[in-house]
Write a structure and sequence with these properties.
mainly beta; three-stranded antiparallel beta sheet; 9 strands; 0% helix; metal ion binding; RmlC-like_jellyroll; RmlC_Cupin_sf; Cupin domain-containing protein
Length: 115
């Protein structure tokens, strides 16, 4: 069993090529007892973005706060709190903050995707 506040979970600045002003927190994963899967919280600061990329594993996403753009296979989709998405493996994607406050989203991936 695991219980904690996201306020207490380590923030990691994402330094991947193509990322700008992105923080990742690993909320629940194998270290907390959830073998095979990882739930992460990403905070994208204003004018920030994740890398535009694709990979073999799927994503499940939930927008927590802020407004942003979800780029999927060549199209930009405005998203706001309450939006959910399933992104199949092999789909080019990116999260972009074009707002004036943090854009925060939950991302669940198989353990192999938590790189």
């Amino acid at each position: 069993m695991f219980l904690d506040s996201a306020k207490n979970i380590k923030e990691i600045h994402v330094n991947a090529p193509g990322a700008l002003n992105v923080i990742k927190q690993t909320l629940v994963g194998p270290d907390q007892g959830w073998a095979g899967w990882v739930m992460r919280l990403f905070t994208v600061a204003p004018e920030g973005h994740t890398p535009r990329h694709s990979h073999s594993w799927p994503h499940i996403n939930y927008i927590v706060s802020g407004e942003g753009i979800m780029y999927l296979d060549g199209q930009e989709h405005p998203v706001e709190p309450g939006y959910t998405a399933y992104i199949p493996g092999g789909t080019e994607h990116q999260f972009i903050n074009r707002g004036h406050q943090d854009f925060v989203l939950i991302c669940i991936v198989p353990e192999e995707g938590d790189v």
